[in-house]
Fold this protein.
Amino acid sequence: MKNQNSNESEIQKLREVVKILRSPNGCPWDKKQTHSSLRYNAVEEAYELVDAIEQNNDDELIEELGDLLLQVVLHSQIAEERKAFDFDLVCKKIREKLISRHPHVFGDSNVQTVDGVWSQWERLKLSEKKGTLSERHSVFDGIPKYLPALIYAEKVLKKSNRIGISLKLVDDDEFKDKQELAMMLFSLVQIAHSKGWSAEALLRSEIKKIEKKLRKIESQTALKKSESKSVKKTKD
């Protein structure tokens, strides 16, 4: 295992290579790139990383982690050129966020369970964003708009479960095992395809409707809690 100083020097070497590629005498392709032109590259690299993990192949894992890291360094270099921010600030911000979001490790919070950690994370996130351009009024704020529909659905469900809200749409007992459910999912995609419909678009559209319902329930629940606190204070 290399020491920390060696790791830092390799990161600096990578940054220098990217800087040269972006320089006037650098690579024609690299020089043309912008945040916008690269916006889907990170998504593709992330999926390739998932493939490497599924293959349980360390050589592939190293390569794909490097490709994903390159996206971070490249975006940071582009930002540095327009005098917005640099790689060091990106590292500083994520380090500070990790510390602030883990008060049970770096502070005096006494959270002991995974559910407690998630609940605390959501509360801290809402608090940190308050008063900023990224202020979040709902736990559903911040879900990426362009997630694949199934991942989007899972994200909405996880968020709703963390605040104790759920919609019972089907009977869970209808499906006895994973394979049966997987075949049902594939069959639904097959049906949509045969009718000339996009299963991805259909699911995305429906999840948006469900998310809207969940947001309404969330808002009503928050209002009831607020009114209950007001009544309690009045009685006190």
Observations:
- The chain has two domains: 4-100, 137-235.
- The radius of gyration is 23 Å.
